[in-house]
TrEMBL record:
Its EC number is 3.2.1.1. It catalyses: Endohydrolysis of (1->4)-alpha-D-glucosidic linkages in polysaccharides containing three or more (1->4)-alpha-linked D-glucose units. This is Alpha-amylase. InterPro entries: A-amylase/branching_C (IPR006048), A-amylase_C (IPR031319), Alpha_amylase (IPR006046), GH (IPR017853), GH13_cat_dom (IPR006047), Glyco_hydro_b (IPR013780).
Length: 512
């Protein structure tokens, strides 16, 4: 009896850690600021056929609309209410996207903002995405409705009302994050409103949530909200499935609040991962690829089964959040592809791929003056669609890293090697490394300033394999380089340090 009880408890907590991706697909892509109509099309025409497991979408709730600066991307992190019209589209378009993505086995994860509403200086009026009236000064959000009773200000003890010191956990959780009106999640009323919002989305068919700003909420309050969540819609998910929860907590070490406080609620974003990987690939501070032999928990990262990992995110690719200059992004394409290749080949964590838009970077004293710029838009501020070029890339300023051959093929690699152990490590004690995943896949990387010429144990069965970095397997031939694996699994690799992409990857399904 006791055993059954504990098993049930365990099942409950495990539920929220499982992304519930389908068809052995393993990675999530963040289609940052995409319109719902474009995501729906992308699920059908690209994500499902190329093995993506799910999409993190931008916040779907009603948000403030700002003119100074003009329509910044971050206006969507300032909720006005929980109606479902946003810069990405209407509620009908949202439902259509969820349905169409689910129908092709691609999950939708919602970026949920339950810590706060808009900034205290957000003004009064109807400048919100559904046109609802609000008054930030009076803390009135009639569509929810929230009033001044529902905010934390009484509890916050700083002079400014804002978080001033990240070493004081009371400030971090009871005061305003960059002046955003801080909801009193200890109140049953606020818990029920936020849970209702999330339940509406669950009932519409989403698979889970990226929960924003979790460091700024008490884990106990969050538990009270999550305990009210419905199981997933049985039209697409097994009976009794719990929503996947991954929490944004920035913990690079050295602060009072730690990621581990949130493990019991779901997975947590591992920000050390991208910061360290960027440092290693840039070869800063004497770091080398050969040190990645014990990458993962060996580097002081959180437990594998708690982590969501990524090379960059929508904040730190433009200097917000944490990670600083080490973070690799599409702007550093060559190193970025290597970092993505490494992440996707390595077994640690649930992997998230970033898909960005271009903006006019303009650095003054190391700070990008245009870090606020929103997605490609028409003069009226509405977001542009994502056009697809004949060569499968995206147009109009949409970067679509997830469509880059090297990244897309490594997403497939990760699916092919899913469940296989980290194996056959090799390094030259410098910046040339190789490793495999059991007998299903093998990667080789050269980030030294000289050529690589080695014969290695791949663990793969003998045969001819297409390198999926320089090309694809196309029927019975390779469009890029090919690798001969001999008896005993040995293969020769030559990688020039001048190669466009100085790394190679082969796997069981790239065999001719
Ligand atoms: C905008 C304006 C503000 C204005 C506000 C209200 O920029 O000037 O006051 O509106 O009118 C996004 C944007 C914000 C924007 C906001 C609302 O990034 O610029 O504010 O929308 O429109 C903290 C949080 C973390 C948060 C991150 C940006 O802990 O949760 O700041 N990320 C999420 C979202 C993000 C969003 C929000 C939250 C708000 O992903 O897009 O903001 O919904 C330390 C702390 C971190 C802290 C950072 C940055 O990090 O540890 O917890 O993140 O500071 O403040 C080293 C340290 C590292 C440290 C870092 C930076 O690397 O090791 O720990 O330095 O100091």
């Amino acid at each position: 009896m006791k055993l059954v009880f504990f098993a049930a408890l365990l099942g409950l907590s495990l539920g929220q850690h499982d992304p519930l991706t389908k068809h052995n697909r393993t990675s999530i892509v963040h289609l940052f600021e995409w319109r719902w109509a474009d995501i729906a099309a992308e699920c059908e025409r690209y994500l499902a056929p190329n093995g993506y497991g799910g999409v993190q979408i931008s916040p779907p709730n009603e948000h403030i609309i700002l003119s100074e600066p003009w329509r910044p991307w971050w206006q969507r992190y300032q909720p006005i209410g929980y109606s479902l019209c946003s810069r990405s589209g209407s509620q009908a378009e949202l439902q259509d996207m969820i349905t169409r993505c689910n129908n092709v086995g691609v999950n939708i994860y919602v970026d949920a903002i339950i810590n706060h509403m808009c900034g205290a200086g957000g003004g009064e009026g109807t400048h919100s995405s559904c046109g609802s009236y609000f008054n930030a000064g009076k803390k009135e959000f009639p569509t929810v409705p929230y009033s001044s009773w529902d905010f934390n200000d009484g509890k916050c003890k700083t002079g400014s009302g804002n978080i001033e010191n990240y070493d004081d956990i009371y400030q971090v959780r009871d005061c305003r994050l960059v002046s955003l009106l801080d909801l009193a999640l200890e109140k049953d009323y606020v818990r029920s409103k936020t849970a209702n919002y999330m339940n509406t989305l669950i009932d519409m068919g989403v698979a889970g949530f990226r929960v924003d700003a979790c460091k700024h909420m008490w884990p106990g309050d969050m538990k009270a909200v999550f305990d009210r969540l419905h199981n997933l819609n049985t039209k697409w998910f097994a009976n009794g499935s719990k929503p996947f929860i991954f929490q944004e907590v920035i913990d690079l070490g050295g602060e009072a609040i730690q990621s581990s406080e949130y493990f019991f609620l779901g997975r947590v974003t591992e920000f050390k991962y991208g910061a360290k990987l960027g440092t290693v690939l840039r070869r800063w501070h004497g770091e080398k690829l050969s040190y990645l032999r014990n990458w993962g928990e060996g580097w002081g990262f959180m437990p594998n089964d708690k982590a969501v990992v990524f090379v960059d995110n929508h904040d730190n690719q433009r200097g917000h959040g944490a990670g600083g200059a080490a973070i690799l992004t599409f702007w550093d394409a060559r190193l970025y592809k290597m970092a993505m290749g490494l992440m996707l080949a390595h077994p640690y964590g649930v992997t998230r791929v970033m898909s960005s838009f271009r903006w006019d970077r303009h650095f003054v004293d190391g700070k990008d003056q245009n870090d606020w710029m929103g997605p490609p838009s028409f003069p009226d501020g509405s977001t542009k669609p994502v056009p697809i070029n004949p060569d499968t890339t995206c147009g109009d300023g949409w970067v679509c890293e997830h469509r880059w051959r090297q990244i897309r093929n490594m997403v497939i690699f990760r699916n092919v090697v899913n469940g296989q152990p980290f194996s056959n490590w090799w390094d030259n004690q410098s910046n040339q490394i190789a490793f495999g995943r059991g007998n299903r896949g093998f990667v080789v990387i050269n980030n030294d300033d000289w050529n690589m010429d080695v014969t290695l144990n791949t663990g793969l069965s003998p045969g001819t394999y297409c390198d999926v970095i320089s090309g694809d397997k196309d029927g019975s031939r390779c469009t890029g380089r090919q690798i001969q694996v001999g008896g005993g699994g040995r293969a020769h690799f030559h990688i020039s340090n001048m190669a466009e992409d100085p790394f190679m990857a082969i796997h069981a399904e790239s065999k001719l």
